[in-house]
Structures are given as structure tokens and as C-alpha cells.
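User: I'm writing a short report section on ligand binding and want a predicted complex to refer to. Could you take this sequence and flavin-adenine dinucleotide and write out the structure as C-alpha cells? A short remark afterwards would be nice.
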Amino acid sequence: MKITSFPRNDHTNGWYNTLGDQPPARVLQGDSRADWVVVGGGFAGLAAARRLGELRPDDRVVLLEAGRIGENASGRNSGFVIDLPHDISKEQPEHDLRQIRVNRQAIAWLQELVERHQIRCQWSHRGKVHVSVTDKGRRNLEVLTTRLSGLGEAVETWDKARLKAYLGTDYFDYGIFTPGCILMQPAALVTGLARSMPANVEVYEDSAVSEFSDGAPKTLTTAEGSVTTSSVILATNGWTPAFGFLERQLLTMHTFASLTRPLTQQEQADLGGEGDWGTIPSTLGATTMRYTQDHRLLIRRSLRYRPDFNILPSDLIQIRGEHEDTLRKRFPMLPELDFEDTWGGVLCMSRNHVPKCGALGDGVWAAVCQNGVGAAKGTISGRAVAELATGADTDLVADMTAYDELQRFPPAFITGLAFRARIAHAQMMAGKEA
Ligand SMILES: Cc1cc2nc3c(=O)[nH]c(=O)nc-3n(C[C@H](O)[C@H](O)[C@H](O)COP(=O)(O)OP(=O)(O)OC[C@H]3O[C@@H](n4cnc5c(N)ncnc54)[C@H](O)[C@@H]3O)c2cc1C
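Assistant: Sure. The C-alpha cells for the complex follow:
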């Protein structure tokens, strides 16, 4: 089948742009055979290809990525590798405990890779602070604290003074700190992962799969080449329906981030705080923030429902304005600070908030749909699907295949209306938390 929906790269990703000149892409050329083809070079695809390479050292593993690795959502996110989910359900502690367990496996694996391959990606054990400024936000955090404590997790409650000492700004009234989250520079991490693959894994970029023949064998065609194989892993997140799978089971939406220039020494002193931190909002539709090791501030806020993946320059202008507004309110001591880049990226959600990690058909597997937090979840899903596809009988496979099946969304027209309304409502209700 012809693939008709492709990722678009608008080169706005600030994290990637700060990396400086990158080596040219290795593009797939000519026709060849491989034992395995992984499509997609985000957290999930990189993890799947690496694990296949480890488990099958004599096999040829080919990874095909449509754009540049690091320009995709995996290089565009806010750089939290979370251990604890933001939402803990009252009803399903076994679901939450499983999620925490696999997230921690992902963190341990990534940590080992960052150390072994000396990946310079600002990897740090700084934890995360959930912050609030309204009564409603505080109540949400109190509920989260109760539920996390019920699962045996350590949670510190922070008052306004502690938050100011840590963050510099006195904007927030209440917060909770959990220590197990990692902060990192996402584009640096994923490019580092792509360049440290086992010897039998070949990574091709700017090599979008434009045609997929799902027979025996299967052929994946790109602009300048093709690969024939018996085994395909799709790590294509919201683009998976373009390959003929999971139609009406995935929903994509965009969220946006802006990154400032580095603060001057005077600005760093004016801000104060401890540096190298990350905050998570207490309500949906509000703002995530980072202060990086190279002294930049990141604002992540705003949601758009664009199933055609079409983000216009005018969207980015409007969203940068929203981010500037947030920056000025929270950091009045930095009146001259401005953004270098504003960008959007795709989140992939399922109706019942579960991932798809498993078989899609004969010789086709998927590690997709990380429900908005994919650094840990995508990594572990990719690892698990490689273990599953090679027949490895591991605890991780048992964990990742224990999720329910993805529920179907209503027809696109109804889903679109419902989601746009939900986004508008969340953004309106965020109020001062935004
Ligand atoms: C602004 C923003 C902030 C975020 N913050 C966080 C955060 O702090 N922590 C966190 O955990 N998550 C965060 N997320 C979510 C996280 O980035 C995603 O969940 C994660 O990147 C998903 O990883 P993935 O590998 O499943 O998919 P992706 O990174 O989307 O990778 C899928 C890949 O498939 C490729 N592809 C698609 N079609 C084809 C084709 N035809 N041929 C070849 N390749 C193809 C795409 O180019 C893409 O590279 C954020 C996302 C955004 C946008």
C-alpha cells in the first residue's frame, strides 16, 4: 500500500538547533534484504532496533526514519524521563505499579547507555516538582500525594518559600517533589542513542517509507531504495494507521514548546534558585517548565487538534505569544529574556490510555502510542516488542502485553468535535496555572 501521511519537519526544534552542525543523514539507497526492519527513529524505534541488535547479533537490523532523528517528537519534548505517572487512578493500583516498574526499567537502561556511550545530554537526577498557584491545583496535588503515598512512593510537600529557593520565581504557592524523574536534553539523547547502536544495526534517516507491501516477504520502499524482510516493527506512533493498522484506535494532538537563549550571568543571578530543574503543572492544559544546565528556560504549553499534522507558521506565532505571556508572568525579573525557537510536536493517545506493544499481524509488530509521555514509556515499549518478536520470555514482555486492547474512537467527525471542546475547556480551566 502507498503511505499517504508523513511527518513534516519545519526545523523549528530548539533542542535540535542548539546541537550545532550535525553529520549528514545516511539515506537508504538501493534494494536489499534484512532480517528485521524497524520503522521510526523515536524512543520506541531506537529501543526496538537496539534490543534486536543485542538479542540477534548475527541478524541485519535496518531502522528507517522519515526525517532526522532528534527532529521528531522524541527530540522535541520537555526532557522529563518520568518514573511516576502524572495521573494515578484510585481503582487500578496494579496498573499504576506496573507502569512505575517498567518506567524505572527504562530509566535504568537509558542511564546505563548514557554512561556507557558517554552521551552528553544533560542527564540529571533532579526529580520533578508539580506546582500549583490556585486552590484547585493544590487540591489536585493533594490527591496525587495521597495516591502516590498509598503506592509507597516518597513525596515531599513544598511551600512557597521552598519553591522560590529552588526555582527562583515566587509565582507558585504549593508544590510536591518526587525524586525519581530524570531531566535531559532530548535531541542530544536520541541522536546519541542513534549513533551508538550495536554493529549489526543500520540507521537510515531522511528515508521515509512511502510504500509497504505486507506479504511474505514484506517490502518497504523509500524514495531511493527498498528493503525486503520477513519481520517489521512499526514504531511510527500516530502515523501507524498510514500503514493500514490501528485505524480509529489512535488519536494525535500537538503540543508546543519554546526555548529561550541562555540567560546572561546577570540574569542567572537575578533569577536565583538552584538551577537545572523541571516543573509539571497541577492541571491539564497548563504549563510545563525547564531550566536547563546551559541556563535556558523552556515553556511547554498549548494544545491543538490537527489530525492532518498541519501546523502553520501562524499557529507558531500565536503560540509563541502565549508562551511569552507565561514567561513574563512567572519571571518578571527577566524582562529582556526572549525565545530562540518555538515548535510543535505530536502526541499519540489511545481512548483507554493504554499503549500498543505487540503483534499487529503476521510478522508485523508495533510499539506505539505512549499517551503523551514517551521517553520512558516509548523506550520500554520498544525494548519489550523486540523481546516479544524474538520469542524471549521475559518479565518485561509479560508486563507490556498485560495492557488491555486499544478501544476504538468514534468516527473522526465526532472525535474531532469532542477533542477540540475538551482542549478548549482544559485551556480555559487552567486559568492562572497556565
Ligand atoms: C512539546 C512536547 C513535550 C513533551 N514532553 C515530554 C516529556 O517531558 N516527557 C515525555 O516522556 N514525553 C514527552 N512528550 C511526548 C514524547 O515526546 C512522545 O511520547 C515520544 O516522543 C513518543 O516516542 P515514539 O518513539 O513512540 O514516537 P515518535 O518520537 O513520534 O517517533 C515516531 C517516528 O516515526 C517516524 N515515521 C512516521 N512515519 C514514517 C514513515 N512513513 N517512514 C519512516 N519513519 C516514519 C517519525 O518521523 C518519527 O520519528 C512531549 C511531546 C511534545 C511534542
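A remark for your report: The longest strand covers residues 339-349. Residues 93-116 form the longest helix (24 residues).
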